Amino acid sequence: MARHRRDDETILRIAQMRYDQRMPQNEIARALDISESTVSRALKAAMDLGFVEIQISPTGLRDFALERRLTHAYGLDFAVVVQPRAGGAAVGDVLGRAVARVVEERTNGGTVIGVSDGDTVASVAAAVRRAKSSDIDVVSLIGGVGAPQIPSHSSEVCRTIAAGLGARAWQLPVPAIVDSAEAAAHLLQTSTVSTVFELMKRASIALVGIGEISPLATVFRHGVIPTDRIGKIAASGAVGTICGWFYGADGKVIPTEFDDCTLSVSPTVLKSIPTRLGVALHAEKAQAIRAAIIGGWINAVGLDSDTADALLRLR
Predict the structure, then answer these.
(1) CB within 10 Å: which end of the chain, N or C, has fewer?
(2) pLDDT score for 82
(3) How far is CA 152 from CA 118, 120, 134, 165, in A?
(4) pLDDT band at 3; cut points 50, 70, 90
(5) Using one digit for the tens of pLDDT, what is the confidence trace for 65-99?
(6) What residues are paired with 140 via a beta bridge?
């Protein structure tokens, strides 16, 4: 006999409560006024019906030996390193889920999480799940880079991670770089922008992307800084960029003509955040990551194994 549609809806609801909201089976039973055995049967049915799929956890794809070597070699607080999954999800998605689990574990009531823009940061944002507390704030650390609707835009990253955690989103509704120092100073005095910058100072976790000095870096790729400036910036000694700021091989800030026009967390504030997690893919970024660690921009990393190996070779 065919099941009633209402039965499928109940099974799906129970599965969502268990796996999306992470509610224990006894709490689901109380909330729906049913027995725990009914919940158990519904969860099995959800698996049989294809409502729930089993996948290897990102934790199972982590290379803990590489993580230990990186942590020891660079004095990091922690490292998350994932191996590519043959025939499976893209390594960026695997890394995003693995880092998301770590962010969730470190998030409690009252936590303020600062986030930058970038493709890898966006992968983390897309993978976060509801936190144990709703008393969490997510704040953009940099103004907009690229079109507002793209996943890597700082406002979209902020909105996505806040929605996933069930937190409050504090977006920075300005471009990352404006036309003049006067325009930047004016915007910083507005209540909307100044409130966001004040909240940045309360962050206990920063999740930031790391860019190398190439046309692939977000600030260049989206035209925030013209690509014809890459040569000049590289010639000044810059090897990497975080939140719109450039730094050299020793991790020190490299001044540019755009600094007074940049609307982003200051290097001083960023470096004062207790957990500064830099995420990146591709071995070509190893030098930029190394310099970011040396300069105190980050004290933890989320990487793929190829990038981790390249970083260790630089040690």
Answers:
(1) N
(2) 94
(3) 5, 8, 24, 18
(4) very low
(5) 999 999 999 999 999 999 886 555 688 999 999 99
(6) 115
The Cα 115–Cα 282 span in angstroms is 20
Could you tell me which residues are beta bridge partners of residue 212?
240
Q: Which two tokens stand for residue 261?
A: 């026009």
- Two structure tokens written together for 30: 């109380």
* Strand partners for 238: 248
CB burial readout 141-176, b (16+ within 10 A) else e? bbbbbbeeeebbbbbbbbbbbbebbbbebbbbebbb
